[in-house]
Amino acid sequence: MYSVDIQNGGVIKKIKGIKSSVVKNTITFDDYLQCLQENAIISREQHNIRSRLHVLRSEKERKMLSVLTTTNDT
Questions:
Q1: Percent of the chain with pLDDT over 90
Q2: How many domains does the chain have?
């Protein structure tokens, strides 16, 4: 998960496992900062259409967003 705030007013946002429309419409740059600085966990819902055994199903899925930080003690 990363976000880049560009000087001309644009923002590049990427989160693995979350649909791009959910990231574009519901996640803000401040959400990234909140996850990073406060170790907050943010949840968002996304809707999927999936086929299992040739039967279409509509699913609502809740994803949890958090930042995993690592420390290097060397």
A1: 22
A2: 1
